[in-house]
Amino acid sequence: MSRIYGPHAIGDLLETAPESVASLLVADGAREASEAGEVLRRARELGIPVHTIDRRELENRRGGRGGSSVAADIRLAAPLELEDLRGVPGEPQLVIALDGVTDPHNLGAILRSAAAFGATAVLCGKDRSAPLNDAAVRASAGAVAHVPLVRVTNLARAFQGLQKRGFWIYGMAAEAPQSLYETDLAGPVVLAFGAEGAGLRQGVSRACDGLLSLPMSGRIASLNVSVTAGIAAAEFCRRALEGN
Questions:
Q1: Do residue 110 and residue 200 come from a single domain?
Q2: 45, 74, 103: which is the final residue of a domain?
């Protein structure tokens, strides 16, 4: 379970992905006429439990930060172990891997794209990776309830295990001569993305079966990692829907 704070963020989730909201916590004394009141009424309409809590306790749970009278507990996707990821030759399956992506907003946006385009999981390291905090949950727009985040100790070693279980591993790199659009993406695939600027680390890059680039013809030569991941996931989904 994860938690987000504030009526705007919670209200957005109640409209776009109400199934991801498990329950609400409201500070005692919160006015029904406030923005928090609108969120509470909508939650009750949807049958979502609402619990009253002491305001100071709510602030303590938020790490001492005040300013919000309502919080939401967010359902997370069922846990998935790395060993549970198994590929079947010829069957489309996408896993997104992140190497050194530390911005929670990017993590949330990538989870959102993963859910939109049918990825099985998002894989990342236990260290040097963005936390699944309230910023990530908000950016995911409810996707955290649908796509599991699998954290591993060593990403390159995780790739080796996935290769043995039927996956092809492709790292996205701006300098790669091979284009994403010219690559056979049939069957189980892992698409790996590095941090902006730094890209994939050398050890992670070497563990990939190949490196792919995203061709661009405009005046900007690079994209935010979450945008790149969304485009690549959309291309995999298009191929899968068209039978590759």
A1: yes
A2: 74
| Confidence (pTM) | 0.85
Question: Which among 59, 65, 53, 63 is positioned nearest to 25, based on CA atoms?
Answer: 53
Range of the domain at 94: 82-241
Q: What is the CATH number of the domain that holds 61?
A: 3.30.1330.30
Spatial separation of the C-alpha atoms in residues 18 and 112, rounded to whole Å: 15
pLDDT band for position 32 (cuts 50, 70, 90): low
Residue 48 token pair: 């979502």
The DSSP symbol for 199 reads B
Residue entry with tokens 């260290």: 127
pLDDT in the model for residue 33: 47
Residue 242 sits at φ, ψ, to 5 deg, of -95, 5
Q: What is the CA radius of gyration of the chain?
A: 20
C-alpha span between 26 and 39 (Å, rounded): 10
